[in-house]
Amino acid sequence: MHPELLDTTHTTWRARPAAHQPGWPDPAPLADVLDRLRVAPGVVTPAGCDDLRSRLAEVAAGRAFVLQGGDCAETFAGVRSDSVRDKLKTLLQMAVVLTYAGSVPVVKIGRMAGQYAKPRSSPVETLDGATLPVYLGDAVNGFAFDAATRTPDPRRLWQAYEASRATMAMVDDYAHNGYAGLDQLHRWNRDFVASSPAGERYEEVALEIDRALRFMRACGAHTDELRSVNVFASHEGLLLDYEDALTRPGPGGASYATSGHMLWIGERTRALNGAHVAFFRSIANPIAVKVGPNTTINEVCAYVEQLNPDGIAGRLTFITRMGASTIRDRLPDLITAIRDAGPPVAWVCDPMHGNTIKSNGIKTRALPDVLDEVRGFFEVHRTLGTHPGGLHVEFTGEDVTECLGGTAEIRPDDLPTRYESVCDPRLNRSQSLDLAFLVAELL
Ligand code: PEP
Ligand code: CO
Q1: C-alpha 376 to ligand 1 mean position (Å)
Q2: CA distances, 222 to each of 183, 205, 208 (Å)
Q3: Would the pTM count as exceeding 0.90?
Q4: Are the C-beta atoms of residues 244 and 13 closer than 8 Å to each other?
Q5: In angstroms, what is the span from residue 321 Cα to ligand 1's centroid?
Q6: Whose CA is nearest to atom 10 of ligand 1?
Q7: Domains of the chain
């Protein structure tokens, strides 16, 4: 392990500028919460982080695919078994389609159990003439538009921790209690999605897998391993006080952020001399950096040098979020530079954040743009002979109307019908399946 990763004090970040940190009104309650977090049990274990890193090494080597997804912003109100189960259903249905089509292992990572803090483009929001602090995620303030709710409250950091623990427990329960087994394929498809074109197509895949399972059992193969799955937790590691307080030494002495298995640095906080890069350098988790259309070759090379100096496979992932109209222009140079530099990284496509538009004043994304960015991602990798390693998406398990398009088409007039996201618009389950089928064809 690189000496920097053995730095259990992980304090170097404090000397660097930290972008997008909340302006807490009072330091005393913040210090109190951080003291409690410093001695609380982690949301995940260092061993779980190592397990994910070794799976991501397979992705970087071109032998596996990542599916990472969930809400843009989780909410405390969303810590409910039905909501967590439905998100898991979306993830599992997509993963089944991808595994079946690609015949490669799919590493399943939720944007779940910790995705409670958001960087925003403006610090304030104006509504009906009143201006208040913008919503920064449930870990910082509340969504309701009133001055008290929008004031950052550090006690929310503790709630975010508890919400993460509760969500992780639900995810583990569903993943291992038989619910996520391959003999449950039809059960995941029983609600609104069943009648959508994507749901019907899914049912055909599920029937073929049933036949394959019956065949395997008839041959005497043990199919017990197929009764549970591993689902890992990830979030943007935005709030450095929180992340720092949950950092613990692992058995080998290296420091791990125990708030989630994988943390990523967002597009807005990836400054090379900034506090986020310094903090991420000091933890041993698998990590990712989101890279947008203005990312330079020098920057990606510097991330590799600073964040993965020893070239550990699975340690570093780049999540590209270029936009459908720019990915084919901007991505090739970055990939070429990294490929020639040597150490393996995984490339994952986020086709959501570069394609946000407004329709009648409502923030949305059109599925055709999302699909086009994914197509561009695969085209670029195919041309360069590199591995399109995965997909990073914002989705929910519910029948929301936040993104346009899909085989069960959502039109601009439908958007207000069920728009529930507190931040970015998410694909609903049938749109998520549409996307999975497209990727399956590309795989
Ligand atoms: C996000 O993932 O919700 C996000 C803010 O993305 P990005 O950092 O890519 O803008
Ligand atoms: Co988002």
Answers
A1: 19
A2: 13, 21, 18
A3: yes
A4: yes
A5: 8
A6: 267
A7: 3-180+228-442 (3.20.20.70)
